Amino acid sequence: MSARVLSGKPLAGLLQQEVQELVRSLELDGVRPVVAVVMATADESTRWYVRSIGKAAERAGVGCRVIDLGHDATEPALAGVLRELSAEPSVNGIILQTPLPAGVRTDNLVGLISPEKDIDGANPLSLGRLAVGQPAFAPATARSVVDILEHYRIPLAGKGVVVVGRSAVVGKPLSLLLLARDAAVTVCHSRSGPLERYTKDADVVVVAAGRAGLLAGSHVSSRTVVVDVGTNVLPDGSLVGDVDAATVTGTAAALTPVPGGVGSVTTALLLLHTVEAARLQALALPMPAGAVDGQVLETAG
Predict the structure, then answer these.
(1) pLDDT tens column, 65-112
(2) Residue-number span of the structural domain to which 191 is assigned
(3) Which of 22, 122, 150, 192 is deepest in the core (most CB within 10 A)?
(4) pTM for this structure?
């Protein structure tokens, strides 16, 4: 048996079409969505990723401003730029791209991003809103996982979902999004003990720990759907996820590929969040009450 491949590209294509349609609609009202990406690194893989955001934005008709402060930027300089962008009416979405220079405290900076422009859910206020079911933009990578599962009609309500990794970027917000869809969520981390204790009986396993080959075929069953969020660059320059794809493919029911899985959806969602933010800002409206990522939440029982 070979695991079903859950490619992210079909969904990314649909999201790109949605973004283009929304952009055309906003243009009729004289509004052009703009996303600002703040970066301060010489890391080439990061710079490549930022360029890819710019290219995707151009194709969709979204303006993209890249503010590159250089690899030696100071925390006060970054803070000043984020404050300016949060107050700038022509900017609808803000991304603070990591990594940042040594000594710069990311936690001090993300709180400066206006929640209404926080299209990647970096501000702790956004995570807090997600936790209590209030409107907020979820981190795009976390939302990508849920959207891929729903795109392929993989049920979540009442299902056992194991999330491996507890970062504020993926693991924690993802667990909140899954809970909002009535999944029974378990979060594993470096002190949880043997993974198979949790993953073997899971319906869905999402791996977002940043360790190549962390999840193997022996950790899952033939009914497990595996979502690989990892992006690890090997010495030869190739990109792999956190899943040992060779062994998991022969065991699990389904698997997202790396590359071509979660990552391909994330950029499209960042642009969609930008356009949604632009629409709300143009109308001077708050996010719809009770809506998170376009879905109405009900009080959990």
Answers:
(1) 999 999 999 999 999 999 999 999 999 999 999 999 999 999 999 999
(2) 140-262
(3) 122
(4) 0.90
